[in-house]
Amino acid sequence: MHYVVLTKGVPDFREGQVEFDDDGHLKRGATPTVMNPNDHFACRAALQMKVKHDGKVSIMGMGPPDFSKILYEGMERFYADELYLLSDKAFAAADTWATSITLATGLKKLDPEPDIVFAGFKTADGETGHTGPQTDWCIEWPIITHVINMTYEEDDEVIRAKRLVEGDPDEIETVECSTPAVVVTDPEFETSYRKASHRLRRKKLREETQERAENHEEYTTQWGHEELNLDPDYVGLDGSPTIVSGVDPIPKPPSERDATMVTPDDEDGMQEVVEELVPYGGGA
Fold this sequence. Notes:
Blueprint: E1 2-7, E2 9-11, E3 33-35, H1 39-53, E4 56-62, H2 68-78, E5 82-86, H3 96-109, E6 116-119, H4 131-139, E7 143-153, E8 158-165, E9 168-178, E10 181-185, H5 196-214, E11 220-223, H6 267-281
Parallel strand pairs: 1-4, 1-6, 4-5, 5-11, 6-10, 7-10
Antiparallel strand pairs: 2-3, 7-8, 8-9
């Protein structure tokens, strides 16, 4: 079995990590990049399949050369076996459509072909949720979205999954499809390792991965538009039909905030702090 996870590097939007220019635009060069948080659930789903059914996990992403550190995170945290970086100046500024074409071409080049491709629900910097389904449209496989739990029947080569209906946590349906297939995990996805053999297998995989992750460059394959036989006119910015009509600058926070300094020996000041915080703690 070959499981492939599609991932993307996104700006680290945690407080204090993001920098903006004077017009309120994100300064990507000065902002740390991390693996898209929703892709973690896709990685966990692939790892669960590897633990329970053997096989190998590959992680594939499109981005600049330094994106390899994001793929490394996937190997270190989720015990991937191989990493694939689709990197080329021709791929720059791609919208979801051009990105999906590039990813689908990379998937078709893999040997062996994937049995299951996992994708995260949506990216933190785009919020469209397009890339997984659009990539599937390019390769024409069955697809299950909003997956929160899944099993695999090896004899029948069938995925059985529980999924949210239109993202509603109160409405769940069980569906199945044959492989190869694409699975888009929901942020509500939960892994399960109930058998002791599975937990021991996972521990063994963690130990095996440590040495591999230290030398992750040896397990990383990089492909550009020539290796993928892609026409630059149909990928990247030139191949992106999306038109951005305008961008509203993000309001800058005030450079200074009012603050009251209170020292532990200031009894009146400490009392005011307590009175201010009590309502938020549910106390009286």
